[in-house]
Amino acid sequence: MKEFFNMGGYALYVWGSFGMTALLMIAEPLLVRNRRKLTLQRVSRLVRSKSAQQSKQSSTNTTGEME
Q1: What's the pLDDT score for residue 65?
Q2: Rounded distance, CA 33 to CA 41, Å?
Q3: What is the pTM of this model?
Q4: Of 15, 22, 46, 64, which residue is most buried, by most CB within 10 angstroms?
Q5: What share of the chain is helix, strand, coil (3-state, %, to 5)?
Q6: Are 67 and 60 in contact (CB under 8 A)?
């Protein structure tokens, strides 16, 4: 069993690689979820902004005065 964990003298490299891979596999979905949330918020703001601009333009007549 000790030989298995020692990995023929390459234990630091092997277990370090395994640990880094495990860490990245856990971090990746968390980062993707956060990026998705931020992107949806940005799109929502853009849609609200565009909607507000369109409603403002539709409420003015050709002379630029409010109806």
Answers
A1: 56
A2: 12
A3: 0.61
A4: 15
A5: 85, 5, 15
A6: yes
